[in-house]
Here is the input.
Amino acid sequence: MKFPRQQLQKYRNEPLHLEETLDLNPAIQERFSDLILSAKPVKVTGTIQMDDQDDYLLIASFHADLTLPSSRSLSPVEWATDLAIHETYVEDPKKINRFEEDEAVFPLVNNAVDLSQAVLDNIVSALPLQVLTPEEEAGAPLPEGKDWQVISEADFMQEHPVEASEGENAENDAKLDPRLAKLDDFFKK
Here is the structure.
């Protein structure tokens, strides 16, 4: 769902109120099919308004119900999130420099604010690093196949004490590199 600049310029004095339902599945399949398997329609409510600096402010909130692949077995896992968007869109990309580094500021693409892209980008940035099925969280056996298996780090340390100690020694040796010892003293002054 795109809002063209010409339409948004009418909302300088009062905001454009949004209440849209977005089907993000085509964009997910195109851009993020490895991160998200599917999404239910997302209902977005919020406003877009033009400010005194001729920038466009998007303030919205939404709830997303997604199906993600398990990070261990790739099995489907249901996941939900509630997010808020507060982004600024500028016509001239050079204007981005006047904003603080931690502010979400983007140039207009094709002279429009793309609500679907903003929502999807915010969803992707909120995805957890580890997604597990309820069985995996409860301690289900780790995946295995013909001539291979996944083991925990603790099991690896027990089964391969020599390799585990070599890894620890390599870390310690790297920390105690004598060629850099004088640099360490330099920064202590």
In short: The mean pLDDT is 83. The beta strands are 2-4, 16-22, 38-39, 42-50, 56-69, 76-90, 105-107, 112-114, 144-145, 148-149.
